[in-house]
Specification:
By secondary structure, this protein is α/β, with parallel strands linked by helices. It is built from 19 helices and seven strands. The protein has helices spanning 3-10, 50-66, 84-92, 102-108, 120-132, 144-177, 181-184, 190-198, 210-218, 228-239, 248-280, 286-289, 297-307, 316-322, 347-363, 365-376, 384-404, 411-414, 419-424; strands at residues 16-22, 27-33, 39-47, 71-77, 97-99, 327-328, 340-341. The model has no long low-confidence stretch (mean pLDDT 85).
């Protein structure tokens, strides 16, 4: 057991009231225990309202007085976003809040009664006893810029997700009414959107000349010079289209609605991205993170939205664990299992790092050299995906170092642990 775990256990003394709360949407359940896990107050309900929170707070004060306790530690099993209101309420009153892992709650619920029964009242007691054993973590209550970045980045990702779903709906529409469209326009660029806005059906292009359709497309906002070769090719494929010819009246309304929503989403994403970039540029870390080649402004926004300030972490290994990149293995006796990443952490952060590393290997010389070294070394060469995972951890270490030490990115220093590469730089 490491020192951090000992610290957590020592935090619960004979003067500590331990509270376990099972979080729900409408009604939470809380249970009070002492430092040895003995029940002081059986599970009771708390409504998700100001009156419910005040009632809970008064119950805490009453129990502290009745049992001669002077400190309180509240533990919760986080459920979606429903715990946030209670967390801010407790913070305003100076009551510390910790979190238990939902998987730990699930696996330890049979210890008391040897039954697989699961309900909110029982879970509250299980959570309280996990807390008194020091099996909890400390949540970060986001404030100011960190809170704005998290909310804004989440909203932006939802808009991007909605845009992707909208593209799929447009592709489905084209597959029915104009399947040859993608032969001319493989992606939804400005001219492709102009075509869908003005002449979405092959029948709209029959007996038309290139100059006629080009004149139509020039009238679309944002498209100054449509390409003539594409217009000619579009007329050719439209002449022999196999698209469905029934239901055009409603289909025209549908595609017009989809096109309008597409433009609206593009504008909303552009607007929120600009605001987020302006916001992140006011942060302390931005000056140093922006010195890393291959790390763009939107990536920095998403990174800080997931991680927060790097100053919150004493060691970069905490970041690696947060991303779920810690190695694990299942070994027993003479059997030695294969090492894999734990995937216990923020999956969005892990996905972000993986997406960032692909272009970074192309545009950042230092990371490209490291990738080639890991995949081509004589002893224990890594597969490409394994190398990318290793480099994701390396990136977190580098970003933590330059942010906490307030220094610009230095490729030579990053590669000093591999002398042959450092000499080649």
């Amino acid at each position: 057991m490491d020192f951090k775990q000992n610290q957590k256990i020592n935090q619960v003394t004979e003067k500590t009231l331990v509270v376990g709360i099972d979080i729900a949407k409408r009604t939470h359940y809380a249970c009070f225990v002492d430092e040895r896990g003995r029940v002081l107050q059986k599970s009771f309900s708390i409504s998700q309202s100001h009156d419910g929170f005040e009632y809970f707070y008064q119950r805490i004060l009453q129990t502290l007085n009745e049992h001669g306790k002077t400190e309180v530690l509240v533990g919760i099993e986080p459920t979606g976003h429903y715990w946030l209101n209670l967390a801010y309420f407790l913070e305003e009153r100076g009551i510390p809040l910790v979190m238990t892992n939902p998987m730990h709650v699930k696996r330890s619920k049979e210890l008391d009664d040897n039954l697989p029964t699961k309900h909110d009242r029982k879970d509250a007691l299980v959570i309280a006893r996990l807390v008194k054993d020091g099996r909890f973590s400390y949540p970060r209550i986001l404030k100011d810029t960190e809170a704005e970045l998290r909310v804004g980045s989440t909203f932006r990702s939802k808009l991007v997700e909605e845009l992707g779903a909208l593209k799929n709906r447009m592709i489905r529409w084209l597959d029915r009414y104009f399947p040859e469209f993608t032969q001319v326009f493989p992606s939804f660029g400005k001219m492709a959107m102009a075509v869908l806005e003005c002449t979405p059906f092959p029948s709209d292009l029959y007996e038309k000349q290139p100059d006629e359709v080009l004149s139509l497309y020039r009238g679309v906002e944002g498209l100054k010079s449509p390409q003539r070769p594409k217009a000619v090719r579009l007329l050719e494929v439209a002449a022999n289209s196999i698209g469905v010819t029934e239901g055009h009246e409603m289909a025209r309304i549908e595609i017009a609605t989809l096109v309008r929503r597409y433009h609206q989403l593009e504008q909303e994403i552009e607007s929120i991205t600009e605001q987020l970039v302006e916001l992140v540029q006011t942060s302390v870390e931005y000056e140093w993170l922006s010195t890393v080649p291959g790390l763009g402004d939107t990536t920095i926004v998403d990174l800080l939205a997931e991680i927060g300030s790097f100053s919150h972490y004493e060691d970069p290994r905490q970041l690696i664990k947060l991303a779920g990149l810690t190695l694990r293995e299942n070994s027993s006796g003479q059997h030695k299992g294969q090492k894999r990443i734990s995937k216990r952490g923020r999956r969005k952060l892990r996905a972000l790092l993986f997406r960032v590393m692909m272009p970074m290997i192309r545009h950042n010389v230092a990371f490209r050299e490291l990738h080639e070294y890991y995949t081509n070394r004589q002893v224990n060469p890594l597969r490409k995906k394994q190398s990318i995972v290793v480099l994701c951890g390396k990136l977190l270490k580098v970003l933590h170092g330059i942010s906490t030490k307030r220094k610009a990115f230095d490729a030579q220093r990053m590669m000093k642990d591999i002398p042959s590469l450092a000499e080649a730089m």
